[in-house]
Every structure is written in C-alpha cells, then in structure tokens.
Amino acid sequence: MQVGDTTAWERTFIEDDVLQFGRLTGDQGIHHMERDEQGRLLVQGLLTASLPTKLGGDMNYIAREMSFEFLRPVFTGDTIRCEVVITHLEKAGGRTNMSAEGVCRNQHGKEVLRFSTQGIIRNV
Question: Is residue 101 within 8 Å of residue 116, measured between CB atoms?
C-alpha cells in the first residue's frame, strides 16, 4: 500500500437491506418504511455510509475517526460505487497510521456521499 492507491466497490441496495438495517439499528423512521411515489424506500444514511467499511475490511483497517457528508438521497434499486484513496501512511511501532478520503456515487455518476477517515492497520 502507498499514498495515492485507490480501491472501489459497489452494491445495489434492495428493500430487504433497508428493512433489516432498520430492525438491527432501530432506524425505522417512516421515511424508511413507506415507499415513495416510485415504489422505492429511502436507504438509511448510515447504511449508505457502511459501504466504505467493506473496503476498510479488505485492508484490515481499524477506523478511529470517520466523517461523512451526505449529499443526496439513496433509494432502493440504486447502485452505489464507493471509491477510497489513501492520503497518508506512516509506520509507527507495531502499526501503520492511515488516512483516506472517498466518494460514493450513484448509477448516474452523481455524488451521494463524501467521507474521510483516520485509523490504523496492525502490522503482522
């Protein structure tokens, strides 16, 4: 890994994702449980924000700080592509300090979420 490395992942949210996340977290606001005029459910913001955690898991990254900026709504049926770029790496004893920034875009290329994170990777 080095500064500037980029990784990406995408997924399409389905109704069951929203309903299960609502049951798990208690985030069952009416805006997540009732369909809009197009028959879609509004995806919870933190469910959308969970996309970068898959990429962090791939790197064995342990987040210590995360910041999210929610830019537009995500609905069931939307395919969201999350891209992360490493902005800082520094070896420190038995770990590597890491910072990254990223963006999530919908299937139309519109940004739905921007984020940044700082944390560590344990050196093995």
Answer: yes
Residue for token digits 């064995």? 60
SS3 107: coil
Do you know the residue count of the chain?
124
**Domains, the chain:** 6-13+50-122 (3.10.129.10)
Amino acid, single-letter form, for residue 120: I
Shortest CA distance to 104 belongs to which of 75, 86, 82? 82
Per the CB < 8 A criterion, the answer to whether 42 and 29 are in contact is no
Give the C-alpha separation, 60 to 94, whole Å: 14
pTM for the model: 0.87
Chain segment 17-52, per-residue pLDDT in tens: 999 988 898 777 777 778 889 999 999 999 999 998
Q: Look at 59 and 47; give whichever has higher pLDDT.
A: 47
